[in-house]
Amino acid sequence: MLQLGDYCPIGVFDSGIGGLSVLKDIHKLLPHEDLIYVGDSAHAPYGDRSARYVRERSQAIADFLLDKGVKAIVIACNTATAEAASQLRETMDVPVIGLEPAVKPAAKLSKSGVIGVLATQRTIDSERLLGLTERYAKNKKVLAQACPGLVEHVEACDLNSKAINQLLQKYITPLLEEGVDALILGCTHYPFLLPAIRKITGKEIQILETGRPVAEQLKRILKENHLQKILIDSAQNLQYKSRLTFYNSSKDKQHHLSMQKLWQESGTEQVPILELPNLENT
Ligand code: DGL
Questions:
Q1: How confident is the model at residue 268, as a pLDDT?
Q2: How would residue 100 be classed by pLDDT, with cut points 50, 70 and 90?
Q3: Where does 103-208 sit in CATH, by number?
């Protein structure tokens, strides 16, 4: 097979397993690209950590990915994007793609003019969210709801227990009472809770995730930088399987099981989980 383009993998990371909701969209849109995913479950949730801690962990993980030869890095975590994206863009010599809560599309979709954002406290307090709101939703009412506890439930692969449903009720019902008709999932762990969230909101509310837009942004950036993998022979194209490599910083087998379960639920093949070596925070 004639090989063209850049065959290096793409690095993707999150505070834990939530970023798999983004990885899923990347894998769907760019099925030929090799992907290395790092979940930092031993140090999740980032939302409860200091800004400095999140920056240091993000830098250490990005350095690890760079050592693995990645050609681009996706920060599949809103919290790490808010705290560390500018620093990583300065220190990495590969493109760094971050996430942003979907304020712009939500503002377009909302008819009631009331938008809800579910996110970690750190994302809610970030200048990034403030900036997006000022820019795209100045004439809307934006209600930001911090959701402590949700990340831990998703990390434990608890997506539908009484406890998680009660937490979701507590966070979402007041937003609905205020007239929210567009709800932004501003944390990459939350899309795994979509069925439980839908039960509370009903079908009419628009729920916005960031996985697909980020995958499209990544595709654009790879193309602009001539970094996309190009397979020429079409028969082989059909059979080509990209290589997926997963790391997790946690030694807890439960985290590894959750990671496998959530990945497989996205309809893809099982991927063994490797233990992330100890990384020095920089
Ligand atoms: N997935 C992360 C995000 O998108 C979760 C943050 C956390 O670990 O608190 O913000």
A1: 74
A2: confident
A3: 3.40.50.1860
Q: Whose CA is nearest to atom 2 of ligand 1?
A: 77
For residue 214, the SS3 value is helix
259 vs 235, 242, 250, CA distance in Å? 32, 19, 11
Amino acid at 58: S
Is the minimum distance from the CB of 188 to ligand 1 under 6 angstroms? yes
pLDDT digits (tens, 9 = 90+) for 201-255: 999 999 999 999 999 999 999 999 999 988 776 666 666 778 999 999 999 999 9
DSSP state of 277: P
Q: Is the peptide bond before 9 cis (omega within 30 degrees of 0)?
A: no
Q: Would residue 77 show up in a list of annotated catalytic residues for this protein?
A: yes
Quote the tokens at residue 260: 């496998």
Fold type of domain 3-99+211-275: Rossmann fold (3.40.50)
Instruction: Tell me if 3-99+211-275 shares its fold with 103-208.
Output: yes
Q: Is the peptide bond before 213 cis (omega within 30 degrees of 0)?
A: no
Q: Is 120 in the pocket of ligand 1 (CB under 6 A)?
A: yes
From the CB of 129, is ligand 1 less than 6 Å away? no
What's the predicted TM-score (pTM) here? Answer: 0.94
Helix (H) or strand (E) holding 182: strand 182-185
Query: What residue ranges do the domains of the chain occupy?
Result: 3-99+211-275, 103-208
Q: Are 10 and 35 in contact (CB under 8 A)?
A: yes
**Is 187 one of the annotated active-site residues of the chain?**
yes
For residue 77, give the ligand 1 atom closest to its CA.
4
